[in-house]
Amino acid sequence: MALLKLSDLKTFFHTRAGVVRAVNGVSFSIEKGETLGIVGESGSGKSVACYSLMGLIPKPPGKIESGQALFDGEDLLQMSEAQLNRIRGRRIAMIFQDPMTSLNPYLRIEDQLIEPLLLHGLADKHGARKKALEMLEKVGIPGAARRIRMYPHEFSGGMRQRVMIAMALITEPDLLIADEPTTALDVTVQAQILELIKSMQQQLNMAVIFISHDLGVVAGFCDRVNVMYSGQIVESGHTDAIFTHPSHPYNQALQRSIPALQAKGQELFTIEGQPPDLTRPVSGCAFAARCVHASHACSQTSPHLECVDEGHWSACLRVQQHEITLAP
Amino acid sequence: MSMPTPPFLKIRGLKTHFPVEKGLLVRKTVATVKAVDGIDLDLNQGEILGLVGESGCGKSTLGRTILQLIEPTQGSVHLNGRCLTELKGKALRESRKDFQMIFQDPYASLNPRMTVYDTLAEALLSHQSIPKSELSQRVGQWMNRVGLSPRFIKKYPHEFSGGQRQRIAIARALVVEPKLLIADEAVSALDVSIQAQIINLLARLSKEMNLTMIFISHDLSVVKHIADRIAVMYLGKMVELGSAESLFDHPRHPYTQALVSAVPIPDPSRERTRRRMLLPGDPPSPMHPPSGCSFHPRCPHAADACQVAFPEWVQEGDRSIACSRLEVVP
Amino acid sequence: MSRPDQATPQPSIWPESAHSLEEAEQGHSLWQDAWHRLRKNRMAVFGGLFILVMGLASLVGPTMVTHGYQEQNLELRESPPSAEHWLGTDKLGRDLLARVLYGGRISLTVGLVATAVSLTIGLLYGTVSGFCGGKVDAVMMRLVDILYALPFTIFVILLMVFFGRDIRLMFLAIGAVEWLTMARIVRGQVLSLRKQEFIEACIALGLPLHRIILRHLAPNVLGPVIVYSTLTIPAVMLLEAFLSFLGLGVQEPMCSWGSLIKEGAEIMEEAPWLLIFPGSLFAMTLFSLNFLGDGLRDALDPRASKD
Fold it and tell me: In CATH, what is the architecture of B9-113+156-321?
């Protein structure tokens, strides 16, 4: 049985400007020990989907319209706050993008580290302190014993991110959700943090959902990848296949836009048009307006994810019907 | 680094130091943040220089110092023969039309209470007089030029997306027809697909207007694409300078090598098989730079000599490297 | 709200006529957004309407009422509300309704004028201090700190002693004290705005200082300034009431809500209406101004515009 199975999640925001369909029918699952990457640009719904799982969506104006999130057999979306609190921070942990604001500036590092253990009754104060020091050393903070009583502002960005990872993993959760954990970091620090998450994952045999807009980071890190656009998953598959056999025009276009893969001296490849307006429901495929392969049928029929190859799913009508094949 | 013709932009010994003061009534300088610590640079007209480095390296401060938005502590900047560092007051304001900047945050770089027309008209009128009847036409032409429909001339910044705001900011910088343009992380806050559009726009406009451009970014792959040459900065000093393509493919300075090695490649097979060069520790703070070559605490090839003095520049073809251990660096 | 879609660069489609501006789509400024939000806030709207009504009543009321505010009628002194005198009469037989309306005029005028004085001084002082920064800012703010320490009451008494009890003096005295907080608020706003990139862009463009301050800083500083001004008015009115209560405010036969409350409090056991009416009207006005101020603050909050 999958560790987490999400079915048909719909999260809408009811705002003055209209109903923002941030997540519009997303389903995926993740196995124990697996690394799943969720890739998309801003507005794709990748963060909102995972925040919905954790019950972190502000309830007005946000509302989880429908969906089921089975974590070890229990539906997270139907749980009460009390029930969710037993799982959050204990079995599902989360790390966020901005290391500067994710830690409480008024509490010492040690106090913040032992908090999850004490809260979930996993250790007494003495045991928790020992474990906190262990974790801090494991995540590679030099001079941990000396620095554990310091405050967040005395640490650099990269160090703070390590502290946050220590805090998230101290309870040895089954699932870690990492929301763009390296985006705000320098590229050399990013490399360190990625190596750290990878090694911790192997030690704990933990599942990781890695949210990112950076295809490069995802390429080296994840087993499987979901590509999201306009609140839906448009392609899903093993990392290699996603890159070598793209099966959705958006994925193909996204990869082509990456400067690193393009020859110098020519204009960069661009995706025509603008990201979609999430307040306006579109009939048919949300990407059709910007898609070079779009046919008339594409704007008429709403596509669903279908299996187009072994373990590879695509929501492109034309690919499903074998009308086109996409080159990387 | 010397050019056959006099360089269009000439920077010599540029330093920007910020004193850190303590004390209640009498302020005493206890330390100095050496944000920019001795930069020499020559640029030809129409050239695009990519300036890369991580946080704390001083690249943004360098950009602002060149533009005289921050007063340099030492050194000189010459643009087309004219010394910018000596200009003050009215003379400085009047010459500003020759050097402009595009900022990182498209949400903060436009006055939220002014329409596109207001912003661009003000820029147009700042250094030339244009009859009112012609003004809206000129604004419309510039909007077209940066890829915005003139239909939206009366709209406010918050009614546009990030990429569009950046286009407005580009138009504002270019309507005065500058000779030098500094783009400070101009695309970093944008989505990947929008980044490509803005980069194309900047490259095209730079050619059309024969702009000399300094493109500051922490994103090496973006810089590689647009720049002719790349300069790598570390802790206020330049450590390597060379042509964009060869610097990226064959970095010589150990720091550049680490930087290039850390950039994720969107190719799973290559990502998995490559050997990453991981730098230990964090980038040091510009307040307490290490002695000698500031990179030596993290450098895998450091020797005793590296702690003594900042290395001499070594010339390898069109590449300049500030390292004394090049014989052991692969 | 639709996003303008981006047109790929093409040959100019700009029509040649000089009236092209009119054909462009209208934009919605942040002020308009704020106005929309304010209108939806019922308490703020109620507060605003009440102030408007109260203001109009105070303006035209005293001339429209049958009795003058100074008219004494000793036969009918301290009489409860009746058909003749809707709100009753005071110890000299003067019509309370007329006096309350006239008092409103005085109180509201003091509120508005003193706030305007403090606004002007504080805006100027705070902008210069915030924009110049460094030593200038430090010195200017230390001066503010020192002035803060002066006891207001003694200051006003001294003024009254030296210059006599002139109502104009009261405007000045109150305004001269309230500007301190206004200066601090403006300075704080200017300090944070100064770091914003669009101000840097103005400097980079070579715009003259006065233009940057007037055209770029000032409109963006206005938000909190408006809110604080709306909340200063009740504070000022209370200050005036306090002075009147001490006997330092307006002189007979002029009256303000403050002096009326003082008189009412003195004989509140025999003629409670003399305290109740001015008191409740004053309280209602203060509430309304506070609701309005709160509503303005919520409406002008830049974070709220991201909804």
Answer: 3-Layer(aba) Sandwich (3.40)
